[in-house]
Amino acid sequence: MTLLHTPPEVSGQEDPTAAVHAAAARARVAARELRSATRTTKDAALRAMADGLVAATPAVLAANADDVALAQAAGTSPALVDRLTLTAQRLAGIAQALRDVADLPDPVGEVVRGSRLPNGLQLTQVRVPLGVIGVVYEARPNVTVDAAGLALKSGNAVLLRGSSSGRRSNRALVDAMREALLGVGLPADAVQAVPGDTHASVQALITARGLVDLVVPRGGADLIQAVVTGATVPVIETGVGNCHVYVDEAADVDMAVAILLNSKAQRVSVCNAAETLLVHAGIAEAFLPVALAALAQEEVTVHGDAAVVAAAAGTGAGVVPVTEADWLTEYYSLDIAAGVVASLDDALAHIARYGSGHTEAIVTGSTRAAAAFVAGVDAAAVMVNASTRFTDGGEFGFGAEIGISTQKLHARGPMGLTEMTTTTYVVVGDGHVRP
Amino acid sequence: MTLLHTPPEVSGQEDPTAAVHAAAARARVAARELRSATRTTKDAALRAMADGLVAATPAVLAANADDVALAQAAGTSPALVDRLTLTAQRLAGIAQALRDVADLPDPVGEVVRGSRLPNGLQLTQVRVPLGVIGVVYEARPNVTVDAAGLALKSGNAVLLRGSSSGRRSNRALVDAMREALLGVGLPADAVQAVPGDTHASVQALITARGLVDLVVPRGGADLIQAVVTGATVPVIETGVGNCHVYVDEAADVDMAVAILLNSKAQRVSVCNAAETLLVHAGIAEAFLPVALAALAQEEVTVHGDAAVVAAAAGTGAGVVPVTEADWLTEYYSLDIAAGVVASLDDALAHIARYGSGHTEAIVTGSTRAAAAFVAGVDAAAVMVNASTRFTDGGEFGFGAEIGISTQKLHARGPMGLTEMTTTTYVVVGDGHVRP
User: Fold this and answer.
1) Exposed / middle / buried, residue B100 (Cβ in 10 Å: 0-12, 13-18, 19+)
2) According to a count of CB atoms within 10 Å of the terminal CB, is the N or C end of chain B lower?
3) CB-facing half-sphere around the CA of A424: CA atoms within 13 A
4) Is B270 on the interface with A (CB under 8 A)?
5) Which residues of A touch B266 (CB under 8 A)?
6) Residues of chain A contacting B432 with CB distance shorter than 8 Å
């Protein structure tokens, strides 16, 4: 029996693993139905979900108010409370995002490649849904809706495991979306909240081999590491970004300063912000005084090597000596590590040693330096004369993203709808057998 | 210092994990060099490796004779000894396969997609090597050379861990290939045998996070499961194939028999051989007597459900009652499970329950049945009126394969050179910053 509303919480007596696996089994049944849902049906569902969320505004805001009150009572920081808080306007924005997903092309059924083989067999590689996707994430309730919308559009059932601080909000959002699915004749179990909010429920989700096709963790480095090392189902690692800006000898100083400031300070709490500045020795004298003054203006603390500390003398910029740990740190704050390198090769060696493979940027007027940097850096994205902040599904024109993959398998960089599919080879013959 | 020849075996006193990690670190250095090697250089290396192997025939055959003698003394089965045995002719064939890989296009540098973004940024997604690939495999020495050739062509360094029974042969092959690499100016450490032949060395390889980008197990189900569940580095699961042939109500009986025989009996020890026959009830009476007689002729033992057992009466075909375990078994032998289903939907439900997601075939003259089967089956390959045996990199025109992936992430189905790469987004601007 399909339950319209999210099943009640798992009580202390029940086995959380069994409850999670039962939810995953229901998701698999729903996924088999979603595989062949047409784009028309899926887009109607997304629009019905958007309408349903707006109609459910009072219930969602009431549930959210309870979450917020509990978070405040527990002494949660104002920044985190703000991320948790929904308003009618924010909810309308979240609903609009679902309509935007409906406007995107359907990745399912796309022919990736194909050919007629010498023996006459027709070979076609075609995109199909993955099946069941689990998403483990932190406070923001908008992820609940974003992830459900992207999974549905790509033909996948989704198991949502948000943080316990947003539990009431997430369940209200999920209930509204499930009701909308039923309204267009799709299975409600295509969108489910993972039952239980203990660690055991996360563990059950990430070890459900044969039931869950992919888990995507979204959140801080601790959450991601816990999921990646604890999972036995396939995982895509997202969002760890120790990004570098390398200012080449042949850079335009004004351009380099603008790209540095944008990469570091336009928004500090994101994975595509820059955490380290590397400067070619040949331009350090011209670039560093201007750059350090500009960073000081933006209240950025520079963790500099000896050459940077020396260049800071008399500029009034706040430079503290860099440590080995700084080169490895993703600050998520108005801090940046900075050093002078003797050559582009030394910059590449530094990046190979300390980078996380997210985004690396070079500022240069030299085609040869640009080509060497692109060839030498092993990362999801390489920027030439552009801010690291551009590594983003929306900026890349993918319309939406489930996360930014920093691993090399399956998806690397912003993961859009295409990356939420796999493929099948369809081979059509007329009685063909192998000789 | 780069060693020309494979370093000596790890002695009991040394730490096998440290030795494997040191080899992986050398592979990473080599991989950085291979990233930007041109196709011309890589193809020259492949041809030099082929020539080097032929030139090393006496040394390789001597080493192989030692492996074979030890295997025979240990009572190894003649079939396994045959797989282990090299001859001058077999070695020439292995060398020729390297020249064939040289003739394939280079996957590195292929532009996967690209566009000019609204703000003028030029976005290009381009294929790049994965980095360091580990291969864990069983007796056949040809895998040593095949895997090295495919890795090199796709710009990756490779760590080869064959079974201990082929240790001497593999080292002789690796030594010849390393010498050839040096001869064309590429790092010898691009091709290495994993030091040590204990289980600890496999464990060190598959848990070398940050040093190894991908491990591909090639061998029996036990080997694959051990690697998949023990690994913390990314793995691609290969080669488990519980493949079904479904004979639809609208099938041509002669075509169905031919496809069934080819799928089951053309070669039994491979993952794309059929292990289960499902027959629509509407054609069972016409099809089963012919099919069972033909299977009997090929000495196939049929494990049948009640309807199949009844149909066998008087045909002289060897039918034994099927068990639940039979439906799950990959026989690798002249055995097949067989059952009658009431409908195509029942066939799909059976396949969803027992299939391994490798290859599923339908024989039908009905476009509607073919479409429903293709839409309803979740597998790497779906055959319409063709033998399951066609799921193969060579047959698909990929030229060569490192294995057949039965997982959904990254690669599904035959893995050619393309699947041994990842991508980087290259973004070129002119001082672009995010507003």
Assistant:
1) middle
2) N
3) 26
4) no
5) 433-434
6) 259, 385-387, 390
What is the CATH T-level fold of the domain A16-238, as seen in this structure? Aldehyde Dehydrogenase; Chain A, domain 1 (3.40.605)
Structure-token pair, residue B220: 């029996």
Q: Is the dihedral of CA A362, A366, A369, A371 positive or negative?
A: positive
Domain residue ranges of chain B, discontinuous segments joined by +: 17-237+415-426, 243-392
* A101-A104-A105 Cα angle (round to 5): 140
* Three-state secondary structure string covering B42-54: HHHHHHHHHHHHH
**Does A386 contact B255 at a Cβ distance shorter than 8 Å?**
no
CA–CA distance from A357 to each of A96, A321, A380, A381 (Å)? 33, 25, 6, 8
pTM: 0.90
C-beta atoms surrounding B36 within 10 Å: 17
CATH number (3.40.50.880, 3.40.50.2000, 3.40.309.10, 3.90.1150.10) of B243-392 reads 3.40.309.10
What pLDDT score does B210 carry? 87
Q: Inter-axis angle of helices A57-73 and A39-55, to 10 degrees?
A: 60
* Interface touch A424/B382, C-beta < 8 Å: yes
Q: What confidence tens digit (pLDDT) does each residue in B402-433 have?
A: 889 988 999 999 999 999 999 999 999 999 99
Stretch 107-126 of chain B: residues touching chain A, C-beta under 8 Å: 115, 117-118, 121, 123, 125
**Tens-digit pLDDT string for chain A (435 aa):** 334 444 444 444 568 899 999 999 999 999 999 999 999 999 999 999 999 999 999 999 999 999 999 999 999 998 889 989 999 999 999 999 999 999 999 999 999 999 999 999 999 999 999 999 999 998 689 999 999 999 999 999 999 999 889 999 999 999 999 999 999 999 999 999 999 878 899 999 999 988 999 999 988 878 888 888 888 888 998 878 899 999 999 999 999 999 999 999 999 888 999 999 999 999 999 999 999 999 999 999 999 999 999 999 877 777 999 999 999 999 989 999 999 999 999 999 999 999 999 999 999 999 999 999 999 999 999 999 999 999 999 899 887 788 899 889 999 999 999 999 999 999 999 999 999
Complex prediction ipTM: 0.90
The alpha-carbon radius of gyration of chain B (Å, integer) is: 24
Query: Which class would CATH give B17-237+415-426?
Result: alpha beta
Best of B233, B378, B392, B412 to disrupt the A interface (most A CBs within 10 Å) is B378
Q: Domain A243-391 belongs to what topology?
A: Aldehyde Dehydrogenase; Chain A, domain 2 (3.40.309)
